[in-house]
Amino acid sequence: KQEVTQIPAALSVPEGENLVLNCSFTDSAIYNLQWFRQDPGKGLTSLLLIQSSQREQTSGRLNASLDKSSGRSTLYIAASQPGDSATYLCAVRPGETSGSRLTFGEGTQLTVNP
Amino acid sequence: NAGVTQTPKFRILKIGQSMTLQCTQDMNHNYMYWYRQDPGMGLKLIYYSVGAGITDKGEVPNGYNVSRSTTEDFPLRLELAAPSQTSVYFCASGARNTGELFFGEGSRLTVL
Q1: Per-residue pLDDT reduced to its tens digit, B9-36
Q2: What does the alpha-carbon distance between residue B106 and residue B52 come to, in Å, rounded to a whole number?
C-alpha cells in the first residue's frame, strides 16, 4: 500500500526566505505526483504536476522535483511571501494509468511572517 | 471556465435526514472523485468514477451513494445522516491524458 509522508508538518519562516517542503512515498511505481495548495476554508489548488518520466517542473517561484528511485519529491519556494501562507499537500498517483486513485500526504502548514 | 462546481457550500442536517451534494465539471474529464476532509486530517476517498455509468468505492464509502449518468455530473447521496458524517466534502475531476486533478471549493456539512 502506498504511503505518503510530508515533513515538516508545520513551518514558520520570515518573508523573503527560500524554503523546501518534503514529500516521501513508499512505492516508487508511480504514474505522477501532484502538489496542491489549500487555503483555510477553501478547496485544493493544483500547483505543479510531475509525470513519472519527468525530474522537475517549474511555475514562477515554485519548483518541484521528483526522484522516484528514492521515493522523494521536494517543493522549492523562492523568496517566500506572506501570501504563500497555506497548507501544501502532495499526492501520488500509483501504477500505470491516469485513473488510479491518488494517495495524499497529511500536508505541511506554512506560515510566512512579514 | 467554471472548472469543478459544488453545491451547496454549507448545509446543516439533522440526524437521519438525507441529502445530495451536487458536483459538476465542465472540462470533459473522464475521472471524478469525492473526498472528505475532517478537521486537521488528510483527505479520504469516498467514491470515484472513471466514466459515465462506472463508479467504485474508495476508502470510506459506508453511508454514501453515488451515480454517474453523465460525464459532467457526479452527485453524492448521504442516506440517514449521522454526526460522524460532519465534514468538508470535496469533489474533484481528473484529466485522462495527464491524470491532473482539479478540485471544487468544497461543501461543509454539519449533522446535528
Answers
A1: 999 999 999 999 999 999 999 999 999 9
A2: 22
